[in-house]
Each structure stands twice: as structure tokens, then as C-alpha cells.
Amino acid sequence: MQSKLGDFIRAHRERTTPASVGLPAGGRRRTPGLRREELAQLCEVSPTWLTWLEQGREVAASSKLLARMAEVLHLNAAERSYLFSLAERLDPQHDADAGEADQSLDAVVAAIDAPAYILNRQWDAVAWNGHALALFGGWLDVEETAPARPNLLRFMFRSAAARGLIVDWDDRARRLAAEFRADIGKHASDPALAAMIAELSQDSPEFRLLWASQDVVSREGGLRRFHHPLAGEMSFNQVTLHMAKRHDFKLVMLLP
């Protein structure tokens, strides 16, 4: 993976003109693009370190450095995402387009004739339809001006409504904690995720014990049972899909 990262950086360095980053193009050049020393200077790293990175040696590139490099090399959204994927780092701007994305996501879930919602990496609900709202009234019935998005784990472990709504709450809570650990993987140190985990560990003894157990299971579908205060017993088959252009987003559908 390191060699692929180095090859990608070198290729884009060589196609980035000095003029595009405000450097003079004078002097004889073996490549029309940036010299390694120039990219190193613009990214505030040593030429030796950048050489090692391009050669595929075991050197670690931080998210901050990769973001700066993406800016200098004028990478588009797909190229930037690929850069962070090769480096196995979380893009600090991975949620930057969330506001624009939400408008199209609303249309996606609205077209589904069953409870459907979309979760981000932190398991905040970023979009949901009327069927989901009717089922999860204690979770999704938030004001549009609310300071935080409705979060599935906060609902599960901090809301009395969840314990009344979800059949076999203990088993479902255990699975959710294990699924969340598997879901976030190497992103667990992300500040927002770490803060939420610490918050839930402090507020919920059940979450604290489940998180300490280190259980990991893949996020699966299957039967989901509810005892709705108005509709009574309800059962659905859960199907979860990842969004193609936002890999940190998951579409969850509860089909009859």
C-alpha cells in the first residue's frame, strides 16, 4: 500500500505546474511538474521524508499533512478520497459536504415505502423518512434547529423510550455496541467519535460494560421487532447498504 501511495503522490507532483502553486518556472527541469524539494517545502516537510514516502518506505503521513498535500496538488474530490484511502487516514474534511449531501439523501429515503434512515460514521441520523419518524418517535422527532443530530447510540442507551420500543433490548444493545466497534474500526481515535464513546461510557453503565468487553460483530440485517406504543407489535427485516459516494454513510431500511 505504501508503494501505491508513493506512486500516486509522485504522479500528481509531476503533473502539477510550478505556476499553479505560485512558483517561478525558470531553470532547466527534468519534469514539467514540481520538484520533490518544492513539494516538500510547500507541505512543510523535509525533502528526505518526502523521498522516503514516494519510495514506499514505512513513514507515516498525518491527516493534516495529507490535507495540505491534496491542496497543493489540486486534487479533486475523488483523488483526495483515494489519497486518504491509500494512506489509511481519516480525511478531516470527510463531513464537509454533509450539508449539500443531505438534500439528495432526503429524496432517497423519501422514495422508500418503509422505515428508512441514513447514518453517518458516528451513527447520527442525517436523513430519514416519515415511516421511520413514525416508528422511532422518541429518536427522530427533533427540531430542525436542534444543536445535534439524533444519534442512534444515544437513543439506545440513554432513552427510556428505546427500552420500551425495542423488543429484547439487552440483546440488541449488546449487538449494537459490537457492531459500532466494527463499524468505526481505525477511526475510533477521531475526536468526535472518541468524545461520544467517553460520554456514553460515563452516562450509561450498560454501554460502559459492553464497550469494555471488546466484542466485535459485523453489521447485519435480519429480524427487528418493536413494541410500538400506538401500533403494537411490529416486525421488520433490516437491510443495510453503504452509499457509493459517501462510504461513511449507511442506508438502513426496515422492510415488512
TrEMBL record:
CDD domains: HTH_XRE (cd00093). One of its GO terms (molecular function) is DNA binding. Residues 8-80 form the HTH cro/C1-type domain. InterPro entries: Cro/C1-type_HTH, Lambda_DNA-bd_dom_sf, MLTR_LBD. It comes from the Bacteria. It holds the Pfam family HTH_31. This is Helix-turn-helix domain-containing protein. It comes from Duganella sacchari. The lineage of its organism: Bacteria, Pseudomonadati, Pseudomonadota, Betaproteobacteria, Burkholderiales.
